[in-house]
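From the shared-data thread, chain only:
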Amino acid sequence: MTIHPTHLATRLAATSTIPLILLILATPPAHAQDAAGNVFHDGESLPWGELNNGVRMLPLYGDPYADGELFAFRLEVHPGFNLRPHTHPVNEHLTVLSGRFFVGLGDTMDKETAKAYGPGSYIVIAADEPAYMWVEEVTVVQVHGVGPFSTQFVEPPARPGPPHPRDKD
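Structure, as tokens:
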């Protein structure tokens, strides 16, 4: 089953408080599926969505939100893209197809400890593991996994404020 890009963009947007991630495609992916379920994509004619907040998206296969269903989509990420710490309920598989994709783990975005991954790199971020990402150049990443896929942003820990006057001894 191929998810319609409009549905995918709506579902992805609903899982985040930041509109910069994945609010994109309006046309379905160009593919031919045969009776056996084989899918064929012609790389020359794949219909990328419009650039929106530094990201273009291309659904390739499946429904990321269906329980137990295999899915795949591509992201073309432009400079200025920053994805703050977040988690997914399932393992996230990422393959860097072009550019450099910076990835770090943890509840707080720390660009000093993150690592850059170039073309051909393969990354798996475990379910419920907080991670953050960004790019400095146009980068294409393919994301795949088994649904249900969603994004939950990690809120930074609350900093304690000054003591309340009633808290005095």
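Residues 5-154 form a domain with the Jelly Rolls fold (CATH 2.60.120.10).
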